[in-house]
Structures are given as C-alpha cells and as structure tokens.
Write a structure and sequence with these properties.
With 524 residues, the chain is an alpha+beta fold. Helix content is 25%, strand content 23%. The strands form 6 sheets. The protein has a 6-stranded mixed sheet with strand order 12-20-13-19-17-18, sandwiched between helices. Strands 1, 21, 22 and 23 form a 4-stranded antiparallel sheet that branches. The chain is globular and about 75 Å long. It starts with a helix and ends with a strand. Belongs to the bacterial solute-binding protein 5 family.
C-alpha cells in the first residue's frame, strides 16, 4: 500500500456522503425543468481516477456508470454489465450492447479495462487505488465476445462488490484524460455542460439513455441538474426553505429547523461511524493495551455518543458504511465498559501514578495525550473533544486538544504523526478496504496511520479475504471485534445526516446519485 492512501482514507472518512434519499412531497412532474442540489464544497478535479472526496463521487455519479449497482438494502444489481460469472480470484462481466458514451461512441469492454488498468498503473498515482478499487486488480477485455474480466493475484472476498465503486470512462476520455479535469466522458444519464469551480456545475440529460440498473428510465427526469457549491450549511438550509435549491445533505443544527418546515421532505440516514483511534507507536503511552483499555473505561461512551452526534446518532454495530455486505453486530460486548474506578486501578497497575498536580507519571514521563480532530464537522465534534479531554484529565492524563482543517489532519496522520488520539469517522463500504489502514507497514512508510499490530485481526482478515463475501462474513465481523476488544479503536456513534428536499425527490446510495430517480414536483 502507498502512503497516499492514508490521505485518501482521511478524505473519505471526513467527506463520505450518506446512503438514502428523499421521497414524498409534491407529485412528480414528467421530464423537464431544473433540479438544483447544494454541494458543501467544490468537487475539484473531475477525473474519476482522482475522485476520492465524497463530494466528487456525488458529482461524478450523474455522468458515469459502474459495472454494477447496489440497492439501499445492499443487493448487487446490473449496471453497465447485464450479467457476470464470479470465481474466487476473478469475475467476468458481459456488457450491455446498447450503451453509448456521452460523445456517441459505443461503450466497449476495452473502455472498462482501460479504466481499471489506468487506476492500477503506478504512474497514475491514483488515490482511489486500494480504497475504492482493490490493490492488485487487473482487467482484460474481449471486445468480440462483449466481455471484460477483472482478476486478482489471489482470491478476494469482495471482487464483485468492489465494481459498484469504479466509474467507467469511455469515448474520447479514454485517450485524453486531460479533458476529464473539468469535463466528463461517461455513459451516465447526464453530461456535464458547464463547470464554474467554486460556484456551480451544470449537467444536461441524455434522453437516449436506456441502460443501467433494471427499471431505470430518463423519461421523467429533469432536463437539467445544477450542483451549486454552498459551503455554509445555514445558507444551504435557507436556500432549501426558499426553494432556490431542491436538495441538500445537512449535518448540523439546521436539521431540526428543516424537519419542522412545511414543504420540506427530510429523512435521517446513516452517514459514518464516529470513533477514535489510539496511536500505538513505540514511544507513545497508548502503545500499552492496558493504558488504551483504561482510557476507554474512563469515558462514558453512551454520553459521548449523544454529544458527538448532537443527539441524532445511533448505536454503532460495525466499522463500514451502510449498506453493509456483512450483516451483524461486531461492537456489542466487545468494547471496554465504562468504569472509572477500574480505569484508575489499571493505570496504577501499569505504572502510571498520580503526581503532585494530579497528572500521572511513569519513569519521569507525564501521561500526555495530544488529541487530534477535524474542525469541519460541526459543533458535535468539538464538544466531543472537550468531553473526552475532561474525562481523561479526571483519570489523570494531561490532554492537549488540536483541532485542524482536513488537509492538516491528513498531514498529521500520514507524515508528522503529531498525535496520540485521533477522532476519525470511517467512510468506506467494504471491510476489505480497511485492512491496509488497520495493519501492515506503519506511516509514513505505509498506510497504517495508527501503527496497529493486532495479530488476531490480521489472522482473521487473511482467512476471510480468501473466501467469497458471504462465506467470510463471520470472520470479517470477528476481526472487527478483535480491534475493539484490544482498544485499538473505539466506536462511539453511528452518525446520521439529513437528506432534505423541496419540490423534488431523489435517491442516493453511498453518496452516489441514482440519477434516474430524480423527479421534480410542482414548482420544482
């Protein structure tokens, strides 16, 4: 794994979009009109090989297809591929014959192969390699047969499931990737026609679109989709109330206002897991499992969950985003329980004794924790930091809070390593995508930013990774539990966001628009 993946994980974790969508509201109108959706930030470079941010993935989902899709309940459905054959180390797809690119060229197996192999090419330095596409995947096309085969060096659990995350570039974009920085070259229902970075992105429907997931149609979708960049969430909510925008994802305190506003359709949907990691470098106090477990016992995680999620979160049951390929609860009963007295006794036993000022000391070193968190996720994350600091100070630790913007957090994880505990929500949909970050070479040489070394986790994921997804699920879940039992990371809350709309309905799954689901209501 390359170290760039640590930054990629951070971007996904901090900006992962929600699963779900909005329904109800005004009756849908037939095709025509403009649907306007608010983006919290600019999507940046639009080449799918560089699209690691949640906001970029959302933007690209209007213009690009994937080989397969996924429903809200986790079922894999056809996309550009109409059928497939899965083997332990490869999957062969038969493509639809009628799919065309936005420039009119047919979509070929060679296009699919070029998309996959471009991401896997070391020269590309794609940040999605190893995150949205597994390391080692290669593609081989047979244009005459209409098939493309994706293979791995060894059996891989989620070889089919990973294809729902890989956007296929076609047409002129295959040979001229430079055109994709501010343009699109895909087979999706919409084509980008105007890009004004920092302000808006305009897409026009392709009425010839007649492929994609079963039952989809562009007959009644809007003629135009505008993605408007609105960095301030209060402004975003105001635009929704006024009807200036038709849809948005809301994280913060404006949720309550929108839920009580007539004409707004609002639905809370899972977004990510709020959790924190302990740094296990040799020179850190949290390298000792006894210290990690004691610090965890010193925190009322139920109360922390309410604070971190501003009262809108749920109880975490696993590490990855919904819809999860492995159903079950890997959390309950596996996290050290709240017990301040036991925490104090454990720290004493580990050699950390209270000094004159109340801060614990061992071998002349103070028990100091540098707590790192992002400042871009609202008041709940800040309040959670302050709550944790208070709990750990009461247990005898000196706590230094360090709130930073996303790019600085990525730098701290990947390069400077100037932290002891970090709040880092997880934002990936497959457990296999986390292995390189939770094991293997430590940062800055590898992607294992917390320097984790959990032999039981490593053994279980190695075994699970060689089995088909369903057959390995018990081991994937047990592997997550092994991390929690060792206090390598501590799950706190399953956070939610509000998918809100006015004058329209739409569906997103894993932050990706189901573009054929967009409908305008009266006045939209």
């Amino acid at each position: 794994m390359r170290t760039s993946q640590a930054a990629a994980l951070t971007a996904l974790a901090l900006l992962a979009a929600a699963c779900g969508g909005t329904g109800g509201g005004a009756a849908a109108q037939p095709g025509g009109g403009t649907f306007t959706y608010a983006l919290p930030s600019d999507p940046g470079v639009l080449d799918p090989a560089s699209g690691v941010l949640g906001v970029t993935i959302t933007t690209l989902s209007l213009a690009y297809d994937t080989l397969t899709g996924v429903t809200a309940d986790g079922k894999i459905v056809p996309g550009l591929a109409e059928k497939w054959t899965v083997e332990p180390d490869k999957v062969t797809f038969t493509l639809r014959r009628n799919a065309t690119c936005s420039d009119g060229a047919p979509v070929t197996p060679s296009d699919v192969a070029a998309s996959v192999n471009h991401i896997a090419d070391p020269a590309t330095k794609s940040p999605i390699y190893g995150v949205l596409m597994p390391v080692g995947m290669k593609a081989e096309a047979d244009d005459a047969a209409g098939t493309v085969t994706l293979s791995m060096p060894q059996p891989f659990s989620f070889i089919l499931e990973s294809t729902r995350l890989i956007y296929v570039v076609c047409g002129k974009g295959v040979k001229d990737r430079s055109a994709l920085a501010r343009g699109t070259s895909g087979s999706g229902p919409y084509k980008l026609t105007e890009a004004v970075p920092g302000d808006h992105y305009t897409f026009k429907v392709r009425r010839e679109y007649a492929w994609g997931r079963p039952g989809s149609s562009v007959k009644d979708v809007p003629e135009t989709v505008v993605l408007k960049v609105v960095p301030n969430e209060q402004t975003m909510a105001n635009l929704l109330v006024s009807g200036t925008v038709n849809g948005a994802t809301i994280y913060g305190p404006d949720r309550a206002r929108l839920e009580s506003t007539p004409g707004i359709t609002a639905k809370p949907v899972p977004e990510a897991n709020g959790e924190f990691f302990y740094h296990q470098g040799e020179d850190r106090p949290t390298a000792d499992a006894a210290v990690r477990k004691a610090l965890t016992q010193a925190v009322d995680l139920k109360e922390l969950a309410g604070i971190a999620s501003s009262g809108t979160g749920g109880t975490p049951t696993g590490l990855v985003l919904h819809p999860r390929p492995c159903q079950g609860d890997s959390v309950a009963g596996h996290v050290p329980a709240y017990d301040p007295a036991a925490a104090a006794a454990a720290l004493d036993a580990a050699g950390w004794r209270a000094g004159a000022d109340g801060v614990r000391v061992k071998d002349g070193e103070r028990l100091t924790l540098r707590y790192l968190y992002a400042t871009t996720k609202g008041a709940g994350t800040q309040a959670a930091a302050e709550y944790l600091a208070a709990a750990w100070r009461k247990a005898g630790a000196e706590v230094k809070l360090n709130g930073v913007i996303d790019t600085k957090l990525a730098e701290s994880l990947n390069a400077t390593q100037d932290w002891d505990v970090v709040w880092l929500p997880i934002g990936v949909p497959l457990p296999s995508q986390l292995v390189g970050f939770l094991s293997g070479p430590a940062a800055p040489k590898g992607a294992n930013f917390a320097h984790l070394s959990n032999e039981r986790y490593e053994k279980l994921v190695a075994e699970a990774g060689l089995k088909p997804a369903a057959e390995g699920c018990a081991q994937w879940l047990e592997a997550e539990s092994a991390l929690f039992e060792n206090a390598d990371l501590v799950p706190v809350a399953e956070t939610t966001v509000l998918q809100a709309s006015k004058g329209a309905t739409y569906e997103q799954v894993g932050g990706m628009f189901v573009a054929t689901s967009i409908r305008l209501g009266q006045g939209g």
